[in-house]
Amino acid sequence: MELSQAPAFVAAKMALLSDARAAAATRADELSTLIPDLRDRWSGRTARQGDHPERLRIELEQRLDEQKALQRQRPIDMSTLESCKAWLAALPPGTLLDEQVSPEVEDVSLSTVRARIKKMQDSVAALKRVPIPAPDIQDKIKAYVQGLTRPNIGGIAAGESLTVQWPTGLHALLAFVESDVLAEKLLAEIDRIANTPCPLAEREQRIAKLEQEIDRMQRVEEAIVVATGAPRQPGCPAWVILGVKATEAPSVRAA
């Protein structure tokens, strides 16, 4: 999708992001000139009428802190703008962006919102890491149990002395005498792993619910950032920053 095809509110947000990046670049250039001047005046290498060492020291520290903050934030702001451009450009023709999402901002701090998002993202990641048993898992277990009973045979070639090393250990013994029991035990353990921390049948539903809440809270986070001017963090999705939901037009795959 070309930016010219996007709704006016999307174009306006892209313009704000671009202006903010340009303003940050201009301020960084100003600081690169201002800081050496303050340092020279504070150290006494140069002087201006009315200079006061303590006030110069305080201002120098403030400008140095500002410069460090800009150096941390500028890559994030540049990445944010570029990710929004890339997301818009990748939308299939016919994708609708007519719905502007305006979240209801809760009476909570930005740090609280971000902590909630992080906790839910960690929960989603943990759920997605839980393996789903393969359709042929029983065949895999059967092959493993059979392998436990196989001896290690050497000296098969002509002129060699035959050697046979039988597997040792309780698990090998159980495979010899109760292979079905061992297979059932392994299947039960796999079932336990696959259904922890929640039943497999409920996992996708729980992930979807968590991701829906993450989306809502990320929109709250963006609203607070816009309202307060707080620095953004990396990783916020482009559609959240732009305040949209991409919907599927007829015969078009949704973004």
Describe this structure in words.
With 255 residues, the chain is mainly α. It has helices at 8-43, 53-90, 110-129, 137-148, 170-177, 179-194, 200-228, 238-242, and strands at 96-100, 152-154, 163-165, 244-247. It folds into three domains: 1-90; 103-130 and 206-255, no CATH class; 137-196, no CATH class. Mean pLDDT is 89; it is low at 248-255. Helix 5 (170-177) packs across helix 6 (179-194).
Which terms summarize this structure?
single chain, 255 residues, mainly alpha, 3 domains, two-stranded antiparallel ribbon, two-stranded antiparallel sheet
Share of residues in helices: 55-70%
Listing every helix as H and every strand as E from the N terminus to the C terminus, the arrangement reads: HHEHHEEHHHHE
Helix run count: 8
Count of the separate structural domains: 3
Major pleated sheet? 2 strands, antiparallel
Spatial sequence of strands, sheet with the most strands: 1-4
Q: What is the total tally of β strands?
A: 4
Element layout with pairings:
Blueprint: H1 8-43, H2 53-90, E1 96-100, H3 110-129, H4 137-148, E2 152-154, E3 163-165, H5 170-177, H6 179-194, H7 200-228, H8 238-242, E4 244-247
Antiparallel strand pairs: 1-4, 2-3
Helix pairs in contact: 1-2, 3-7, 4-6, 5-6
Entry summary:
This protein is mainly α and 255 residues long. It contains eight helices and four strands, in the order ααβααββααααβ.
